[in-house]
Design goal:
Chain A: It comes from Paenibacillus prosopidis. The structure holds two protein chains of two kinds. Chain A has five domains: about 10-35 and about 260-425, 3-Layer(aba) Sandwich (Rossmann fold), CATH 3.40.50.300; about 40-250, P-loop containing nucleotide triphosphate hydrolases (Rossmann fold); about 440-495; about 505-565, no CATH class; about 575-600 and about 630-755. Chain A contains 26 helices and 32 strands. Chain A has a seven-stranded mixed β-sheet with strand order 1-11-18-17-14-16-15, with helices on both faces. A seven-stranded parallel β-sheet of chain A has the order 6-7-5-8-9-4-10, with helices on both faces. Chain B is of the alpha+beta class. In chain B, about 55% of the residues lie in helices and about 10% in strands. In chain B, the strands form two sheets. Chain B has a seven-stranded mixed β-sheet, with helices on both faces. A two-stranded antiparallel sheet of chain B has the order 3-4. The relative contact order of chain B is 0.08. Mean pLDDT of chain B is about 85; it is low at about 15-45. Classes of the chains: A alpha/beta, B alpha+beta.
Chain lengths: ~750, ~450
């Protein structure tokens, strides 16, 4: 270490230094060093076009990693393929290799690439076009998205060999106008779907239907394209890809890419109040670790789970460079930023000009920001898959890298931080989609009918086609004639259907501080709790107060303020069971799965002081109630169990169990914690018994609570083990919740109840 | 199936709607008693030759070919027929003028096909169906309008086969917005019905573009129905607006009653005739044959725009005539004069340009107005760069600057305004230096 600057010569030396630092090491619950991995390679395949070979060689590629070679073999054998690869392992070659080869063999051929976002598509086109130019052949690659100027659209439709787009554009612009894309659809050989793991939940269910429509159009033009998918590491890549594209796929998962040594450090903030089980804020600890790294000049990415956290951390970290005027070396990055700003930040990261970035999972996807050296996770990212993805942002091929995971006090984090083996040994989560969700399905049946009349005997999803057709005839959007169903309505159905439920209904945030300008946007589900009136909305580290929320117009007007608190809103929820589809009993406990309606209304918000995080006031929220019809799973305790406890005790016990469950449920699902909700009721309307409900936060459900119903026993077991192994005395935020919420005996009550649930006595 | 509807209603969370809808699901009595007309919901095989007399009452017949059947209405007009200001026979003389659209092609009236669609929706997506196709053409001193109607979408293939055959006889396609709407839509239908995409490659005569060039700012709207009324002397009676056509067609699909469709046929028929008159109008203009057939534009704005359009189409004689008329007109808007001045500036016709700018300054009521400012800036540039009379240039620049300064006090300054003011300040300063130098 340099005695004068305190800087070490490299990451290795700094890590050694950290190992000597007891102040830090006392909080490290686990330090795993993952050995560097040698590359496993295979020669360039025989028969590869010589121009292609040359282009690869000039890029320094004279052999392939094993997974690339295998993906090529599988694709050339005519199979649909899904390749599973971690971040930065040469994934794109898995599909570019067979696609380019096929285009070189037949220049009439076409390929369609789908990326979940515009940014990813643009990255990809730059790379593909550079490769094509190297070969000096006329292969043209274009993005086709909302930013494509009308003047070049015609040229792309007719002459683009590789069209790179996103599912939204495919859904609303390409498929409904397929007659303009005859050349593409007649000659399409490959459809590449990258980041398939991103297509899960509602969005994934929509995309699966867009792909059904795509295949239908291809059939019409007499083509049978092959799908090549790429996925991050998830538990069920093959099953997921198969559900998404509706075809059998071959799995390629023998990653042969090399990796430098990787340090994975689990860091648990120190307990500051043992009685209450309160730990130091993970935000403050993240600030400390990230600050140390940044001061060392280590290029660092910090991931935080919410937009608010991102902004908080950004504010804190920018204090490091406060003295330097115009220093833009530490930046934030999240969904609400406008695209231009995001591109600028991505460039800065690649060039190294930006040394630190605080991001939501927006940077988890394959946006090209180069490889950084260190990663600090503020809280467990929610899924094992995401954790590996985010951690993969740090790690260059030859150098060491480090990832710190700083646990928050929520139970899932605490579980992970104390059970590192669970994290390192368990396969990542499953990606779930439910393409036959009736609402989603019917939406796409309409779009499909607009694109081509349906014929009797066609299949689209699991519902009977006749039933759906008849329904839509009654709805007066289809007309049956000559054994076919025709779209007969003035509207353009794709315009009213958004694949990302929130996207189309985003709330726009308008800053009125100096004139008025659009600051950013917030999705519809987050709006009631994020931008209700008087909420503090933080953007790029600056605080704004919401002055007016125009709910019908979906606009929030804000003004810059400077206050020392942030806001947090509460939601009141009512449940009604409509229909029970499945029921099972185990021990004292009955569990059911079925349909229910949920009425939710935001009630109050709290003002929470920055840094100390104490509650300093509250206010009401006046917004309309929202009704949701969805699927849910719930379990109820017996009346005897109920009789053994007072109403109050039962309340605490249920709340405690619910608090634990809501946090560990995502262990079994690949979903945003917002996608699934848990509600405990002492005497539920439906069962008249103490009951805990889970429901999917999307009309019709997307299969989350159904999966939880299946893994119920395991879920309860994990909950119990978590509560038991928590070091607190009588409940803390890391298990059943703080004692203010669940009472002094909350922990004990919850355990008792869970034991009974298994039919055992204490 | 009702199961599916119930599930949908629950998911959408609209129980109220569900209750409302569940009541009138049972068909009303009268619907049960009465036999349906020739209900279009009958499948193709069951269709009989029999056509309701209602159809015949407005001249619609059943047409059959190898593929199937559809309805056809054919109206033959004698060439002497007048529609508004023009008579159809003028097409013979006028159409050769339209060759300005396609200079390499020779053009005659019998090579032009007129086309206008009535569709089920907006846009050119695959689900927008032209249920009525109107075509018009000259045939032996007659003008023929043919209109096809499909009684249901399954009749489309037969109709398209008929249309495909017709198209082969023509080279030019005359439409109103057909380049971006009607023709792409017809092409969609050919592709979707398996005819391929190379049925016909028309040379477009899309009159929407010249109409906009000429009448923008003089007419409230450039919709065909408005243009024809204001400029072609055509007054429709009891017209069914085109925007209602889809609903009327859906109604027909539901109840099979042809009567309301008569209005759609008549509307489309008038559109076809108006299209022909528009071809006549633009043909005469391009023949520079204005006095014989068409009234001169009255408003200077229209004169300038007509001139500018003719010039773009390569017709210089009438262009100059139009521009000279503007110089003589005394009620021209400053903005009109500026438009002509800017054309003259580009063409190097500095004499008239200067005259026009000066006229703008005089005509602008207070001398100060944004048009006058623009004219002052133009004159400042002219005197500075062309004449090198810095004194005069400074005078104009000063006027422009003062005006801009006054404006900026009254209005909020945005970046653009600020930049404009800044550049004027610089211009004045520069001219002042140059003027002083010149004096010395």
């Amino acid at each position: 270490m340099n005695r004068f600057t305190g800087k070490t010569s490299g990451l290795e030396e700094w890590l050694e230094h950290v190992r000597q630092n007891t102040e830090i090491m006392d909080n490290v619950t686990h330090w795993r060093t993952i050995a560097p991995r040698e590359a496993r390679t295979a020669p360039l395949p025989d028969g590869l076009h010589h121009a292609w070979k040359e282009a690869l060689r000039s890029r320094g590629i004279s052999e392939l990693y094993t997974h690339q070679a295998e993906a090529y073999r599988a694709a050339r054998a005519g199979n649909h393929v899904v390749a599973v690869t971690p971040t930065a392992s040469g994934k794109t070659l898995c599909y570019n290799l067979p696609v380019m080869q096929s285009l070189l063999e037949n220049e009439e051929g076409r390929a369609l690439y789908l990326f979940p976002t515009k940014a990813l598509a643009q990255d990809q086109v730059a790379e593909l076009q550079a490769l094509a130019d190297l070969m000096d052949v006329g292969i043209k690659t274009h993005t086709y998205d909302g930013d494509t100027p009308p003047t070049v659209r015609t040229a792309i439709r007719n002459a683009g060999h590789i069209v790179v787009t996103n599912p939204d554009m495919l859904h609303s612009a390409i498929l409904p106008h397929h007659t303009k894309w005859v050349k593409l659809f007649e000659n399409i050989k490959y459809i590449v779907i990258d980041e398939v793991h991103a297509y899960r939940g509602v969005f994934g269910s929509h995309v699966a239907n867009v792909i059904r429509r795509l295949k239908r159009i291809c059939r019409f033009y007499g083509s049978r394209p092959q799908f090549i998918c790429a996925s991050a590491t998830i538990d069920n890549p093959q099953e997921h890809a198969e559900r998404l594209i509706g075809e059998k796929v071959s799995l390629v998962d023998n990653n042969g890419a090399p990796m430098g040594e990787k340090h994975f450090v689990f860091y648990n903030p120190p307990v500051v109040n043992r009685q209450l089980g309160i730990r130091r804020s993970s935000v403050l600890e993240t600030r400390k670790l990230a600050g140390l790294l940044l001061k060392q000049g280590v290029q660092t990415i910090v991931f935080a789970r919410s937009r608010v956290r991102v902004e908080l951390l950004l504010t804190y970290l920018q204090e490091l460079i406060r003295d330097k005027v115009n220093d833009k070396s530490i930046r934030g990055y999240r969904g609400g930023y406008l695209p231009k700003l995001r591109r600028e930040i991505e460039r800065g990261l690649r060039s190294g000009e930006i040394r630190g970035v605080v991001s939501t999972n927006a940077l988890e996807l394959g946006i090209d920001i180069g490889q950084l050296q260190a990663c600090v996770l503020n809280g467990y990212p929610g899924t094992i898959a995401s954790t590996w993805q985010q951690s993969g942002r740090a790690g260059r091929r030859q150098e060491s890298s480090v990832t710190f995971m700083v646990a928050s006090s929520n139970p899932l984090d605490q579980y992970m931080i104390q059970n590192p083996d669970f994290f390192f040994n368990r396969p990542p989560e499953r990606a779930l989609i439910h393409p036959d969700n009736l609402l989603v399905l019917i939406d796409h049946v309409k779009c499909a009918a607009y694109e081509l009349p349906f014929e009797a005997g066609e299949q689209f999803g699991s519902e009977s086609l006749e039933d759906m057709m008849e329904f839509l005839v009654e709805e007066k959007v289809l007309h049956k004639a000559g054994g076919r169903w025709f779209w007969m309505e003035q509207s353009f159905p794709a315009h009213n259907i958004s694949l990302r439920t929130a996207a189309q209904e985003n709330f726009i945030i308008i800053d009125n501080t100096n004139g008025s300008r659009v600051l950013g946007e917030v999705d519809r589900f987050s709006a009631p709790t994020l931008i209700h009136e008087e909420a503090i909305y933080i953007h790029e580290g600056v605080q704004y107060q919401v002055e007016k929320l125009d709910y019908p117009e979906k606009k929030a007007y804000v003004r810059e303020v400077n206050v020392d608190y942030y806001t947090d809103a509460n939601l009141a929820v009512e449940l009604k069971v409509l229909h029970v589809d499945k029921e099972r009993e185990s021990g004292d406990l009955v569990r059911q799965y079925g349909e229910l309606t949920v009425n939710a209304k935001p009630t109050i918000f709290k003002k929470i002081k920055l840094r100390t995080h104490e509650n300093i006031g509250s206010g009401p929220i006046h917004l309309p109630e929202e009704e949701l019809h969805t699927s849910g799973y719930w379990f109820s305790f017996s009346e005897e169990a109920a009789a053994r406890k007072s109403k109050n005790e039962m309340q605490f016990a249920l709340l405690g169990i619910a608090n634990v469950l809501v946090h560990i449920a995502p262990l079994y699902l690949m979903c945003d914690p917002f996608d699934i909700r848990v509600v405990p009721q002492v005497k539920a309307v439906h069962t008249q018994k103490p009951t805990i409900y889970f429901y999917d936060r999307y009309p019709g459900g997307i299969g989350l609570s159904e999966r939880l119903f299946e893994v119920h026993d395991e879920l309860i077991r994990q909950a119990k083990s978590l509560i038991r192994s928590c070091t607190c005395l009588s409940g803390c935020p890391a298990c059943v919740g703080p004692i203010e919420e669940v009472g002094l005996l909350g922990k004990q009550q919850a355990l008792e109840l869970l034991n009974e649930a298994e039919g055992k006595t204490r | 199936m009702s199961g599916l509807r119930d599930r949908m209603n629950r998911l959408r969370g609209d129980r109220s709607e569900q209750e409302l809808k569940s009541a009138p699901v049972a068909p009303p009595l009268d619907e049960l008693d009465e036999p349906k007309h020739d209900a279009p919901s009958l499948s193709v095989e069951e269709e009989t030759e029999w056509l309701s007399p209602v159809w015949e009452s407005f001249g619609v017949i059943l047409y059959k070919n190898d593929i199937g059947s559809f309805l056809l209405r054919k109206i033959v007009y004698p060439a002497t027929f007048s529609h508004g200001l023009h008579a159809i026979e003028e097409l013979r003389d006028a159409v050769p003028g339209l060759s300005a659209f396609h200079p390499t092609r020779s053009m005659s009236a019998d090579k032009v096909l007129f086309l206008d669609l009535e569709t089920t929706g907006l846009g050119v997506g695959a689900g927008n169906v032209p249920f009525m196709v109107g075509i018009g053409y000259m045939s032996n001193e007659h003008f023929v309008v043919e209109q096809t109607l499909i009684r249901h979408p399954a009749e489309e293939r037969a109709m398209l086969a008929y249309l495909a055959e017709k198209l082969q006889h023509y080279t030019f396609l005359a439409t109103y917005n057909g380049k971006t709407f009607d023709w792409p839509l017809v092409q969609n239908r050919f592709i979707m019905n398996g005819f391929g995409r190379n049925i016909w490659e028309p040379q477009h005569l899309d009159f929407l573009h010249p109409a906009r060039s000429v009448w923008r700012n003089t007419l409230i709207s450039c919709k065909l129905s408005h243009v024809e009324e204001e400029r072609l002397g055509i007054h429709r009676k009891d017209d069914v607006p085109g925007s209602l056509a889809p609903q009327l067609y859906f109604q027909f699909l539901a109840d099979g009653d042809p009567a309301p469709l008569e209005g759609v046929f008549r509307h489309n028929e008038t559109d076809m005739l108006s299209l022909a008159c528009l071809a006549i109008r633009f043909g005469h203009l391009l023949n520079e044959n204005i006095h014989e057939y068409i009234p001169l534009p009255i408003e200077p704005e229209e004169m300038v725009r007509t001139g500018l359009w003719l010039e773009r189409m390569g017709k210089i004689t009438l262009t100059e005539q139009m521009f000279e008329m503007v110089m003589r007109a005394d009620q021209a808007n400053p903005s009109t004069l500026l438009m002509l001045a800017s054309r003259d500036k580009k063409a190097g016709n500095w004499g008239r340009a200067v005259l026009l700018w000066q006229k703008v300054i005089i005509h602008s009521s207070t001398q100060y107005g944004s048009a006058a400012q623009e004219a002052n800036v133009e004159l400042a540039m002219y005197y500075e760069h062309k004449v090198k009379d810095y004194e005069s240039a400074l005078g104009h620049a000063n006027h422009a600057f003062e005006y801009a300064l006054n404006q900026s006090m009254l209005l909020r300054r945005d970046t653009k305004k600020r930049a404009e003011l800044e550049s004027l300040r610089n211009r004045v300063a520069r001219l002042r230096r140059k003027a002083e130098k010149q004096l010395r």
